[in-house]
Amino acid sequence: MRGVVKGFQFSAITAGIKAGGRPDLALICSEVPAIVVGAFTTNQVQAAPVTVSKRNIRSGRCSAIIINSGNANACTGARGLQDAEWMVKETSDRLHLPRQHVLVCSTGKIGEWIPRKSLHRGIPRLVKGLSPQGASSVARAILTTDRGPKISFFEGKIGKKKFHLLGIAKGAGMIFPRMKREATMLAFLMTDLRIGRPLLKSIFDRVLDQTFHCITVDGDTSTNDTVLLIANGMAAAPLAVRSGSKEALLFEKGLHQVMQELALKVVQDGEGATKRVQIDVLGARSWREAQRVAETIAHSPLVKTSFFGEDPNWGRILAAVGRSKVRIDPDVVDIYYNNVCLVKRGLRRSVGAERRAHHVMKKNDFRVTIALHQGNARFSLWTSDLGTNYVKLNATYRT
Q: Of 76, 144, 145, 184, which residue is the catalytic one?
């Protein structure tokens, strides 16, 4: 059955954390201890569940992930840490698992304590409702300000044996994932492939840099960002633990497809977003300089509001390039909206070009290319526009 990964089960319920009777508690389980790798936020203010999961992931094994939405359990002090530990204990006791094999994630409002009574009643119901077909219910239960669930699936074949990869994510605001290799955005990736942990981690780190680290909605890195990849080996399709093998390359291709699709869905679902914009910086002296220029452009409120207004205000882009702290020559910079050249060698082309660029910006998806002509390095970043709905939503998020 499409969407099913062998040996994984899912469950989601309404526990009463969020208002309005919406699902807010989810569980992902592997029938056998799975190999796990992950990445967590680099924000110095880290939520209690991040602290607990960073510790437990050191075991290298994971059998369950307990997730709640509506409450981030961040900036909650010693009690918050105790609550995250308690969620792990309640889950491990119900499933008869070692505590170090259970990870915990939370998302929602900062500064509020977890309602233990609600979760104490809810976790047994979660365990009872586990099903191989429950992934879509988990994808809905982890949402906060998202407009819809985000799921991606890949099926591959090694010899005569199939393997599967399923990804679930949430995220709409406070999106600028910067995670330490060992990301509010949460992503959970499950595969039934048999693969060694060192190779799994190597592939995961590489794909993470190419996907979730190439998106931004508002430039704010969350206290709770987490991406987890677990592999339980139940597909019976062995993967040679050899970097560069055709099997490893196939798995990396599938993982990239799933993580890229989820990352782009996060941008598309950005709070108040009406546009998804790919920013390509070409001709930089180094990859890092190209990245810095792209991020400066993507985080500029003036640039983002021009995207919302469908106004090809190229001067704002050139100004952002100039303040990126990257040494450039403004007299050789070119700027394109899709294939429409607005700026050539630092000067505006024509009014007609601006009219054509305006029509490009009416699309839900378009590309802005900045050619620096300083070297051969490049970087691509996906971002969204900034409109009135983003301001309204975040101005009253708590009240």
A: 184
CA atoms within 13 A on the CB side of 211: 26
* Comparison of pLDDT for 395 and 80, the residue scoring more: 80
The torsion of the CA quartet 276, 279, 280, 284, rounded to 10 degrees, works out to: -160
Token readout for 319 is 């100004």
- pTM (2 d.p.): 0.90
Site of tokens 């390039």:
321
Structure confidence at residue 331 as a pLDDT band (50, 70, 90): very high
- Report the C-alpha gap between 106 and 87 in whole angstroms: 11
Sorted by sequence, the CB contacts under 8 Å of residue 352 that are 6+ apart come out as none
pLDDT at 192: 95
pLDDT bracket for residue 398 (50, 70, 90): low
The residue to which tokens 């709640």 are assigned: 68
Reply yes or no on whether the pLDDT at 366 is more than 90.
yes
Give the phi and the psi of residue 342 in degrees, each rounded to 5: -95, -35
Active site residue 274: no
Q: How many CB atoms lie within 10 A of CB 286?
A: 14
- 318-348 burial, b at 16+ Cβ within 10 Å, e below that, comes to bbbbeebebebeeeebbbbbbebbbbeeeee
DSSP string, 279-329: EEEEEESSHHHHHHHHHHHHT-HHHHHHHHTT---HHHHHHHHHTSS----
Cβ atoms < 10 Å from Cβ of 304: 25
pLDDT mean across residues, the chain? 91
In the DSSP assignment, the letter for residue 337 is E
